[in-house]
Design a protein that fits this description.
Layout lengths: L2 E2 L12 E5 L6 E5 L9 E8 L5 E7 L13 E5 L5 E6 L20 E2 L4 E4 L13 E4 L7 E3 L2 E3 L3 E5 L8 E4 L2 E3 L1 E5 L2 E5 L9 E5 L2 E4 L5 E3 L2
Parallel strand pairs: 12-20
Antiparallel strand pairs: 1-3, 2-3, 4-5, 5-6, 6-7, 8-9, 9-10, 11-13, 13-17, 14-15, 14-18, 16-17, 18-19
Length: 220
């Protein structure tokens, strides 16, 4: 597998190719899957951005490990911002076949929970003809999510996460805020008067957990 920066034409891309925009301004990088000799697979599904900044997705099948198209040996892969593809899991036709994601028909792909674990549903599994759910610890860090993700100062918001019961501090872009622990997975708080747009952070005994994106403070 290799990746190269090439000019794009109006021709439709092959299904075995996935496109990702490089972080370098003005550069569009094409990353090619190689189902025979390298990481990847065929018929990639949708992508999500993990809490580590990399992209994660699934392929419908692959031709490695004695698997051919239609047998059901899909993959779960990672793409770095530079376009490097790494296969992090090979499924088999007897466990997690066709790991296309939580909503196969719409190619939604994987979901990352606030504990950093990836979840999805295989499209077929002879051992579970009525469906199944898989989880894959991929070394991603936990994160918290603000609901809503943007609000005016003084607005009440919810913070969702994992193992939040012993939270000792909440900050909006470094500015402390009063908060209430509702449960191990939820905190309520209000946007401080002088808060600015930036990361929301929660301090727990296990460490500081950051939001999966900047919280946007709306001007009144």
């Amino acid at each position: 597998m290799g990746s190269s920066t090439e000019p794009l034409t109006s021709a439709a891309p092959r299904r075995e190719e996935q496109f990702s925009r490089s972080l370098q301004a003005g550069s569009l990088r094409r990353s090619n899957f190689d189902p025979l000799n390298g990481p990847g697979g065929v018929n990639p599904g949708g992508l999500i951005q993990g809490s580590d900044g990399n992209l994660y997705g699934t392929t419908f099948s692959n031709w490695q490990l004695g698997c051919g198209e239609g047998i059901g040996c899909g993959t779960i892969f990672k793409i770095t911002p530079a376009g490097e593809i790494t296969t992090i899991y090979y499924s088999s036709p007897y466990f997690g076949a066709y790991p296309f994601g939580l909503v196969e028909a719409t190619n939604v792909g994987l979901v990352e929970a606030t504990n950093g674990v990836l979840f999805g549903t295989p499209g077929g599994d002879p051992n579970q003809p009525y469906g199944s759910l898989f989880s894959l610890p991929a070394g991603l860090s936990p994160f918290v999510e603000a609901i809503p993700a943007a609000a005016e100062s003084g607005s009440r918001i919810r913070i969702l996460g994992t193992n939040l019961s012993a939270t000792s501090a909440v900050t909006f872009n470094g500015l402390p805020a009063a908060f209430t622990v509702v449960s191990s997975s939820e905190i309520t708080t209000s946007v401080p008067a002088k808060a600015t747009t930036g990361r929301l952070q929660v301090v727990t005994p296990a460490g500081t957990i950051s939001s999966n994106g900047p919280f946007r403070v709306i001007s009144k």
